[in-house]
Protein backbone atom coordinates (compact mmCIF):
# COMPACT_ATOMS: atom_id res chain seq x y z
CA UNK A 1 0.00 0.00 0.00
CA UNK A 2 2.90 2.29 -0.80
CA UNK A 3 0.63 4.42 -2.99
CA UNK A 4 -1.20 5.62 0.09
CA UNK A 5 1.99 7.35 1.21
CA UNK A 6 3.12 8.55 -2.20
CA UNK A 7 -0.24 9.74 -3.47
CA UNK A 8 -2.30 8.49 -6.39
CA UNK A 9 -0.10 9.91 -9.20
CA UNK A 10 2.96 7.94 -8.08
CA UNK A 11 1.03 4.73 -7.73
CA UNK A 12 -0.54 5.13 -11.16
CA UNK A 13 2.45 6.47 -13.06
CA UNK A 14 3.10 3.22 -14.90
CA UNK A 15 -0.54 2.33 -15.30
CA UNK A 16 -2.07 2.50 -18.75
CA UNK A 17 -4.93 4.98 -18.79
CA UNK A 18 -7.91 4.38 -21.03
CA UNK A 19 -9.88 7.48 -21.96
CA UNK A 20 -13.29 6.84 -23.47
CA UNK A 21 -14.25 9.74 -25.72
CA UNK A 22 -18.03 9.80 -25.95
CA UNK A 23 -19.31 10.84 -29.34
CA UNK A 24 -22.59 12.79 -29.24
CA UNK A 25 -25.53 10.68 -30.50
CA UNK A 26 -23.36 7.68 -31.28
CA UNK A 27 -20.80 5.46 -29.57
CA UNK A 28 -17.42 6.11 -28.10
CA UNK A 29 -13.76 5.78 -28.97
CA UNK A 30 -11.29 4.35 -26.49
CA UNK A 31 -7.88 5.95 -26.39
CA UNK A 32 -5.04 4.24 -24.56
CA UNK A 33 -2.55 6.60 -22.95
CA UNK A 34 0.74 5.35 -21.55
CA UNK A 35 1.76 8.46 -19.67
CA UNK A 36 -1.51 9.48 -18.02
CA UNK A 37 -0.24 11.80 -15.28
CA UNK A 38 1.80 13.82 -17.84
CA UNK A 39 -1.14 14.26 -20.16
CA UNK A 40 -1.91 17.88 -21.06
CA UNK A 41 -5.25 19.48 -21.82
CA UNK A 42 -4.04 20.35 -25.31
CA UNK A 43 -3.15 16.67 -26.00
CA UNK A 44 -6.70 15.64 -25.19
CA UNK A 45 -8.23 18.37 -27.37
CA UNK A 46 -5.93 17.29 -30.19
CA UNK A 47 -7.17 13.71 -30.01
CA UNK A 48 -10.80 14.86 -29.75
CA UNK A 49 -10.09 16.93 -32.88
CA UNK A 50 -9.09 13.72 -34.66
CA UNK A 51 -12.12 11.81 -33.42
CA UNK A 52 -14.54 14.64 -34.25
CA UNK A 53 -12.88 16.55 -37.09
CA UNK A 54 -16.05 18.44 -38.02
CA UNK A 55 -16.75 19.86 -34.57
CA UNK A 56 -15.05 22.79 -32.92
CA UNK A 57 -14.33 21.41 -29.50
CA UNK A 58 -12.83 23.74 -26.94
CA UNK A 59 -13.49 21.86 -23.73
CA UNK A 60 -14.75 18.54 -22.45
CA UNK A 61 -16.57 17.24 -19.41
CA UNK A 62 -16.37 14.28 -17.08
CA UNK A 63 -18.80 12.98 -14.49
CA UNK A 64 -18.19 12.98 -10.76
CA UNK A 65 -19.52 10.35 -8.37
CA UNK A 66 -22.95 12.03 -8.31
CA UNK A 67 -23.17 12.06 -12.09
CA UNK A 68 -22.67 15.85 -12.23
CA UNK A 69 -20.75 17.05 -15.28
CA UNK A 70 -17.53 18.96 -14.61
CA UNK A 71 -15.92 21.00 -17.37
CA UNK A 72 -12.23 20.78 -18.19
CA UNK A 73 -10.65 23.63 -20.11
CA UNK A 74 -7.12 23.95 -18.70
CA UNK A 75 -4.18 21.91 -17.45
CA UNK A 76 -5.18 22.70 -13.86
CA UNK A 77 -8.65 21.25 -14.40
CA UNK A 78 -7.08 18.26 -16.20
CA UNK A 79 -4.98 17.56 -13.10
CA UNK A 80 -8.08 17.72 -10.90
CA UNK A 81 -9.91 15.31 -13.22
CA UNK A 82 -7.03 12.82 -13.33
CA UNK A 83 -6.59 12.99 -9.59
CA UNK A 84 -10.30 12.30 -9.12
CA UNK A 85 -10.21 9.45 -11.66
CA UNK A 86 -7.14 7.80 -10.11
CA UNK A 87 -8.76 7.87 -6.70
CA UNK A 88 -11.87 6.15 -8.10
CA UNK A 89 -9.88 3.39 -9.83
CA UNK A 90 -7.93 2.78 -6.65
CA UNK A 91 -11.20 2.15 -4.89
CA UNK A 92 -12.23 -0.20 -7.71
CA UNK A 93 -8.89 -2.03 -7.39
CA UNK A 94 -9.20 -2.35 -3.63
CA UNK A 95 -12.74 -3.72 -4.01
CA UNK A 96 -11.59 -6.15 -6.71
CA UNK A 97 -13.86 -4.50 -9.30
CA UNK A 98 -13.20 -4.08 -13.01
CA UNK A 99 -11.48 -0.79 -13.79
CA UNK A 100 -13.73 1.57 -15.73
CA UNK A 101 -12.20 3.80 -18.41
CA UNK A 102 -12.20 7.54 -17.84
CA UNK A 103 -15.23 8.82 -19.75
CA UNK A 104 -15.09 12.27 -21.26
CA UNK A 105 -17.74 14.21 -23.16
CA UNK A 106 -16.44 16.65 -25.79
CA UNK A 107 -18.16 20.02 -25.69
CA UNK A 108 -18.66 21.72 -29.02
CA UNK A 109 -18.72 25.51 -29.20
CA UNK A 110 -21.42 27.56 -30.92
CA UNK A 111 -21.51 27.36 -34.71
CA UNK A 112 -19.59 30.16 -36.44
CA UNK A 113 -21.44 33.39 -37.03
CA UNK A 114 -24.07 32.89 -34.36
CA UNK A 115 -22.81 35.68 -32.17
CA UNK A 116 -21.65 38.03 -34.90
CA UNK A 117 -24.52 40.49 -34.56
CA UNK A 118 -23.25 42.90 -37.17
CA UNK A 119 -22.90 40.16 -39.78
CA UNK A 120 -19.41 41.32 -40.61
CA UNK A 121 -18.25 39.88 -43.90
CA UNK A 122 -14.68 39.10 -43.15
CA UNK A 123 -12.85 36.36 -44.98
CA UNK A 124 -14.14 33.22 -43.33
CA UNK A 125 -12.18 30.64 -45.26
CA UNK A 126 -11.67 27.51 -43.22
CA UNK A 127 -8.17 26.56 -42.21
CA UNK A 128 -6.40 23.75 -44.00
CA UNK A 129 -7.71 20.61 -42.38
CA UNK A 130 -4.95 18.27 -41.39
CA UNK A 131 -7.29 15.45 -40.44
CA UNK A 132 -9.35 14.48 -43.43
CA UNK A 133 -10.76 11.44 -41.65
CA UNK A 134 -10.87 10.35 -38.04
CA UNK A 135 -7.42 8.90 -37.50
CA UNK A 136 -8.29 7.31 -34.19
CA UNK A 137 -9.66 3.81 -34.30
CA UNK A 138 -9.42 2.00 -31.02
CA UNK A 139 -6.33 3.40 -29.50
CA UNK A 140 -3.54 5.82 -30.34
CA UNK A 141 0.10 4.98 -29.72
CA UNK A 142 1.43 7.37 -27.11
CA UNK A 143 4.56 8.21 -29.17
CA UNK A 144 2.43 9.71 -31.95
CA UNK A 145 0.87 11.95 -29.32
CA UNK A 146 4.29 13.01 -28.04
CA UNK A 147 5.38 13.92 -31.54
CA UNK A 148 2.29 16.00 -32.21
CA UNK A 149 2.66 17.78 -28.86
CA UNK A 150 6.22 18.75 -29.70
CA UNK A 151 5.19 19.96 -33.14
CA UNK A 152 2.34 21.95 -31.65
CA UNK A 153 4.58 23.64 -29.15
CA UNK A 154 6.77 24.77 -32.02
CA UNK A 155 3.84 26.02 -34.06
CA UNK A 156 2.04 27.66 -31.17
CA UNK A 157 5.07 29.50 -29.82
CA UNK A 158 5.62 31.93 -32.63
CA UNK A 159 8.89 33.83 -32.34
CA UNK A 160 11.05 33.71 -29.25
CA UNK A 161 8.32 34.61 -26.80
CA UNK A 162 6.93 32.32 -24.15
CA UNK A 163 4.94 32.80 -20.96
CA UNK A 164 7.77 31.76 -18.61
CA UNK A 165 10.01 34.61 -19.78
CA UNK A 166 7.43 37.33 -19.26
CA UNK A 167 6.80 39.24 -16.03
CA UNK A 168 3.50 41.11 -16.15
CA UNK A 169 3.53 44.54 -14.53
CA UNK A 170 0.81 47.15 -14.95
CA UNK A 171 -2.45 46.86 -16.82
CA UNK A 172 -2.40 49.40 -19.66
CA UNK A 173 -6.04 49.05 -20.53
CA UNK A 174 -8.95 46.82 -21.36
CA UNK A 175 -10.50 46.65 -24.79
CA UNK A 176 -13.49 44.91 -26.21
CA UNK A 177 -11.51 41.76 -26.89
CA UNK A 178 -8.76 41.63 -24.29
CA UNK A 179 -6.44 43.24 -21.80
CA UNK A 180 -3.11 44.91 -22.51
CA UNK A 181 -0.30 44.64 -19.95
CA UNK A 182 3.02 46.35 -19.64
CA UNK A 183 5.48 43.51 -19.19
CA UNK A 184 9.18 42.76 -18.81
CA UNK A 185 10.81 40.19 -21.07
CA UNK A 186 13.53 38.62 -18.92
CA UNK A 187 15.96 37.22 -21.58
CA UNK A 188 16.11 40.44 -23.63
CA UNK A 189 15.52 42.96 -20.83
CA UNK A 190 12.89 44.59 -23.06
CA UNK A 191 9.69 46.25 -21.91
CA UNK A 192 6.75 44.97 -23.94
CA UNK A 193 3.04 45.53 -24.33
CA UNK A 194 1.32 42.15 -24.16
CA UNK A 195 -2.27 41.85 -25.29
CA UNK A 196 -4.00 38.82 -23.81
CA UNK A 197 -7.23 37.66 -25.44
CA UNK A 198 -9.36 34.78 -24.15
CA UNK A 199 -10.52 32.68 -27.08
CA UNK A 200 -12.37 29.40 -26.89
CA UNK A 201 -11.34 28.05 -30.25
CA UNK A 202 -10.08 24.77 -31.63
CA UNK A 203 -6.50 23.86 -32.05
CA UNK A 204 -6.87 24.06 -35.82
CA UNK A 205 -7.97 27.69 -35.55
CA UNK A 206 -5.16 28.43 -33.10
CA UNK A 207 -2.66 27.07 -35.61
CA UNK A 208 -4.24 29.07 -38.39
CA UNK A 209 -4.03 32.27 -36.35
CA UNK A 210 -0.37 31.64 -35.57
CA UNK A 211 0.47 31.14 -39.22
CA UNK A 212 -1.49 34.24 -40.23
CA UNK A 213 0.40 36.29 -37.65
CA UNK A 214 3.71 35.29 -39.30
CA UNK A 215 3.37 38.18 -41.74
CA UNK A 216 3.90 40.58 -38.83
CA UNK A 217 7.58 39.62 -38.75
CA UNK A 218 7.85 41.01 -42.26
CA UNK A 219 6.12 44.28 -41.38
CA UNK A 220 8.85 46.84 -41.24
CA UNK A 221 7.67 50.41 -40.99
CA UNK A 222 8.31 53.10 -38.43
CA UNK A 223 4.55 53.82 -38.53
CA UNK A 224 3.53 50.31 -37.48
CA UNK A 225 3.94 48.87 -34.00
CA UNK A 226 6.84 46.39 -33.70
CA UNK A 227 5.83 42.75 -33.28
CA UNK A 228 7.91 40.45 -31.08
CA UNK A 229 5.91 37.23 -31.12
CA UNK A 230 2.75 35.52 -29.98
CA UNK A 231 1.82 32.33 -28.21
CA UNK A 232 -1.20 30.41 -27.07
CA UNK A 233 -1.45 29.08 -23.52
CA UNK A 234 -4.59 27.05 -22.92
CA UNK A 235 -7.49 29.21 -24.13
CA UNK A 236 -5.72 32.54 -24.39
CA UNK A 237 -3.45 34.13 -26.94
CA UNK A 238 -0.75 36.60 -25.90
CA UNK A 239 0.49 39.01 -28.53
CA UNK A 240 3.75 40.76 -27.66
CA UNK A 241 4.46 44.14 -29.23
CA UNK A 242 6.56 47.21 -28.77
CA UNK A 243 5.60 49.30 -25.71
CA UNK A 244 4.67 52.90 -26.49
CA UNK A 245 5.23 55.09 -23.44
CA UNK A 246 2.82 57.83 -24.57
CA UNK A 247 -0.15 55.47 -24.75
CA UNK A 248 -2.97 55.83 -27.24
CA UNK A 249 -4.48 59.02 -28.70
CA UNK A 250 -7.95 58.48 -27.21
CA UNK A 251 -6.77 59.95 -23.91
CA UNK A 252 -5.41 63.17 -25.38
CA UNK A 253 -8.74 64.87 -25.96
CA UNK A 254 -8.57 67.91 -28.22
CA UNK A 255 -5.35 67.92 -30.26
CA UNK A 256 -4.23 71.25 -31.86
CA UNK A 257 -4.33 71.32 -35.64
CA UNK A 258 -0.59 71.62 -36.24
CA UNK A 259 0.06 68.54 -34.04
CA UNK A 260 -2.83 66.64 -35.55
CA UNK A 261 -1.45 67.36 -39.03
CA UNK A 262 1.80 65.58 -38.19
CA UNK A 263 -0.09 62.70 -36.58
CA UNK A 264 -2.25 62.41 -39.71
CA UNK A 265 0.83 62.09 -41.94
CA UNK A 266 2.19 59.25 -39.79
CA UNK A 267 -1.16 57.42 -39.63
CA UNK A 268 -1.74 57.71 -43.37
CA UNK A 269 1.79 56.44 -44.04
CA UNK A 270 1.13 53.51 -41.70
CA UNK A 271 -2.13 52.67 -43.45
CA UNK A 272 -0.61 53.01 -46.92
CA UNK A 273 2.10 50.60 -45.85
CA UNK A 274 -0.46 48.05 -44.64
CA UNK A 275 -2.54 48.42 -47.79
CA UNK A 276 0.59 47.84 -49.89
CA UNK A 277 0.84 44.46 -48.14
CA UNK A 278 -2.85 43.85 -48.93
CA UNK A 279 -3.74 44.17 -45.24
CA UNK A 280 -6.82 46.16 -44.24
CA UNK A 281 -6.51 47.69 -40.81
CA UNK A 282 -10.20 47.05 -39.96
CA UNK A 283 -10.02 48.82 -36.58
CA UNK A 284 -8.79 52.36 -37.18
CA UNK A 285 -9.64 54.48 -34.13
CA UNK A 286 -7.77 56.76 -31.70
CA UNK A 287 -7.13 53.95 -29.19
CA UNK A 288 -5.23 52.06 -31.91
CA UNK A 289 -2.93 55.01 -32.63
CA UNK A 290 -0.03 54.97 -30.20
CA UNK A 291 2.59 57.60 -29.44
CA UNK A 292 5.93 57.62 -27.63
CA UNK A 293 8.19 60.22 -26.10
CA UNK A 294 10.46 59.99 -29.15
CA UNK A 295 7.67 61.70 -31.06
CA UNK A 296 6.69 58.62 -33.04
CA UNK A 297 3.13 57.70 -33.98
CA UNK A 298 2.37 54.04 -34.74
CA UNK A 299 -0.66 51.98 -35.64
CA UNK A 300 -1.56 48.85 -33.72
CA UNK A 301 -4.30 46.18 -33.66
CA UNK A 302 -4.70 45.78 -37.40
CA UNK A 303 -6.54 42.78 -38.75
CA UNK A 304 -3.61 40.81 -40.09
CA UNK A 305 -5.18 37.50 -39.12
CA UNK A 306 -8.68 37.12 -40.51
CA UNK A 307 -9.16 34.12 -38.27
CA UNK A 308 -8.23 36.16 -35.18
CA UNK A 309 -10.59 38.97 -36.25
CA UNK A 310 -13.30 36.35 -36.79
CA UNK A 311 -12.75 34.58 -33.51
CA UNK A 312 -12.82 37.84 -31.55
CA UNK A 313 -15.99 38.95 -33.38
CA UNK A 314 -17.63 35.64 -32.49
CA UNK A 315 -16.56 35.74 -28.87
CA UNK A 316 -17.05 39.39 -28.02
CA UNK A 317 -20.10 41.24 -29.17
CA UNK A 318 -19.24 44.87 -29.40
CA UNK A 319 -20.17 48.03 -31.24
CA UNK A 320 -17.53 49.87 -33.12
CA UNK A 321 -18.69 53.42 -33.68
CA UNK A 322 -15.84 54.11 -36.11
CA UNK A 323 -17.08 51.52 -38.58
CA UNK A 324 -18.07 52.61 -42.07
CA UNK A 325 -21.77 52.26 -43.02
CA UNK A 326 -21.09 49.38 -45.39
CA UNK A 327 -19.47 47.42 -42.56
CA UNK A 328 -22.31 48.15 -40.13
CA UNK A 329 -24.76 46.92 -42.78
CA UNK A 330 -22.68 43.79 -43.32
CA UNK A 331 -21.76 44.55 -46.94
CA UNK A 332 -18.40 43.98 -48.62
CA UNK A 333 -15.77 46.44 -47.52
CA UNK A 334 -12.30 47.54 -48.48
CA UNK A 335 -9.72 50.30 -48.19
CA UNK A 336 -12.51 52.92 -48.25
CA UNK A 337 -13.82 51.60 -44.95
CA UNK A 338 -10.45 52.19 -43.30
CA UNK A 339 -10.52 55.73 -44.76
CA UNK A 340 -13.96 56.33 -43.23
CA UNK A 341 -12.72 55.26 -39.79
CA UNK A 342 -9.67 57.46 -40.25
CA UNK A 343 -11.90 60.48 -40.96
CA UNK A 344 -14.12 59.87 -37.93
CA UNK A 345 -11.03 59.41 -35.74
CA UNK A 346 -9.47 62.67 -36.86
CA UNK A 347 -12.75 64.53 -36.41
CA UNK A 348 -12.88 63.23 -32.86
CA UNK A 349 -9.28 64.22 -32.16
CA UNK A 350 -9.78 67.69 -33.64
CA UNK A 351 -13.13 68.39 -31.93
CA UNK A 352 -12.25 66.73 -28.64
CA UNK A 353 -15.49 64.72 -28.81
CA UNK A 354 -16.95 61.94 -30.90
CA UNK A 355 -18.71 63.54 -33.93
CA UNK A 356 -21.86 61.37 -33.89
CA UNK A 357 -24.57 61.26 -31.20
CA UNK A 358 -23.89 58.55 -28.66
CA UNK A 359 -24.80 55.77 -28.22
CA UNK A 360 -28.34 54.49 -28.85
CA UNK A 361 -29.24 55.36 -32.41
CA UNK A 362 -25.62 55.75 -33.38
CA UNK A 363 -25.27 52.89 -35.84
CA UNK A 364 -28.57 53.66 -37.56
CA UNK A 365 -27.61 57.34 -37.70
CA UNK A 366 -24.33 56.52 -39.49
CA UNK A 367 -26.13 54.36 -42.06
CA UNK A 368 -28.96 56.93 -42.60
CA UNK A 369 -26.64 59.93 -42.89
CA UNK A 370 -24.59 58.05 -45.44
CA UNK A 371 -27.71 57.12 -47.45
CA UNK A 372 -28.91 60.77 -47.38
CA UNK A 373 -25.53 62.04 -48.56
CA UNK A 374 -25.50 59.47 -51.39
CA UNK A 375 -29.00 60.62 -52.48
CA UNK A 376 -27.96 64.30 -52.40
CA UNK A 377 -24.92 63.43 -54.53
CA UNK A 378 -27.10 61.52 -57.01
CA UNK A 379 -29.51 64.50 -57.23
CA UNK A 380 -26.82 67.08 -58.09
P1 LIG B 1 -10.64 47.46 -28.81
O1 LIG B 1 -10.47 46.21 -28.02
O2 LIG B 1 -12.05 47.68 -29.22
O3 LIG B 1 -9.65 47.52 -29.95
P2 LIG B 1 -8.95 49.33 -27.38
O4 LIG B 1 -8.03 49.61 -28.53
O5 LIG B 1 -9.27 50.51 -26.49
O6 LIG B 1 -10.32 48.72 -27.87
P3 LIG B 1 -7.01 47.42 -26.45
O7 LIG B 1 -6.49 47.25 -27.83
O8 LIG B 1 -7.20 46.20 -25.62
O9 LIG B 1 -8.38 48.19 -26.45
O10 LIG B 1 -6.01 48.39 -25.69
C1 LIG B 1 -6.28 48.84 -24.41
C2 LIG B 1 -5.39 50.01 -24.11
O11 LIG B 1 -4.04 49.58 -23.94
C3 LIG B 1 -5.33 51.05 -25.23
O12 LIG B 1 -6.34 51.99 -25.12
C4 LIG B 1 -3.95 51.66 -25.07
O13 LIG B 1 -4.05 52.79 -24.25
C5 LIG B 1 -3.14 50.59 -24.37
N1 LIG B 1 -2.16 49.98 -25.28
C6 LIG B 1 -2.42 49.06 -26.23
N2 LIG B 1 -1.29 48.69 -26.88
C7 LIG B 1 -0.29 49.44 -26.32
C8 LIG B 1 1.13 49.54 -26.56
N3 LIG B 1 1.73 48.80 -27.51
N4 LIG B 1 1.84 50.39 -25.80
C9 LIG B 1 1.22 51.14 -24.85
N5 LIG B 1 -0.10 51.10 -24.58
C10 LIG B 1 -0.85 50.26 -25.30
MG1 LIG C 1 -6.61 48.46 -29.43
UniProtKB/TrEMBL annotation:
What the entry lists under CDD domains is as follows: PB1_Map2k5
Annotated spans, Disordered: 116-144
Spell out the reaction equation it catalyses.
L-seryl-[protein] + ATP = O-phospho-L-seryl-[protein] + ADP + H(+); L-threonyl-[protein] + ATP = O-phospho-L-threonyl-[protein] + ADP + H(+); L-tyrosyl-[protein] + ATP = O-phospho-L-tyrosyl-[protein] + ADP + H(+)
> Protein kinase domain: which residues?
166-380
Record key words, sorted: ATP-binding, Kinase, Nucleotide-binding, Phosphoprotein, Serine/threonine-protein kinase, Transferase, Tyrosine-protein kinase
- Give the top-rank taxon of the lineage listed in the UniProt record for this protein: Eukaryota
Q: Which residue range or ranges hold the PB1 domain?
A: 18-109
Chain intervals with Polar residues compositional bias: 126-144
GO molecular function (one): kinase activity
First-tier enzyme category under EC = transferase
The answer on whether this UniProt entry bears the keyword Secreted reads no
Keyword Cytoplasm recorded:
no
EC numbers: 2.7.12.2
User: Where does this protein hold ATP?
Assistant: 195
User: What family does the Swiss-Prot or TrEMBL record give for this protein?
Assistant: Belongs to the protein kinase superfamily. STE Ser/Thr protein kinase family. MAP kinase kinase subfamily.
**What is the recorded name of this protein?**
mitogen-activated protein kinase kinase
State which gene encodes it.
MAP2K5
Amino acid sequence: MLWLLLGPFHAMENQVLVIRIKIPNSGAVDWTVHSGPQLLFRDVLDVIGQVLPEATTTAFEYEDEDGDRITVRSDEEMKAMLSYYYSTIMEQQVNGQLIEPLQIFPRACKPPGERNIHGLKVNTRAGPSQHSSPAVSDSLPSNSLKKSSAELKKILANGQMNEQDIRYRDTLGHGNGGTVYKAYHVPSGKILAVKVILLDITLELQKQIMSELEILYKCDSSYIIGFYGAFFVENRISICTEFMDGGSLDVYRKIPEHVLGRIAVAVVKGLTYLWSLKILHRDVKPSNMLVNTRGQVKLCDFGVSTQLVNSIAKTYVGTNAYMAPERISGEQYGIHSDVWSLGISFMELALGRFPYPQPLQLLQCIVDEHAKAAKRKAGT
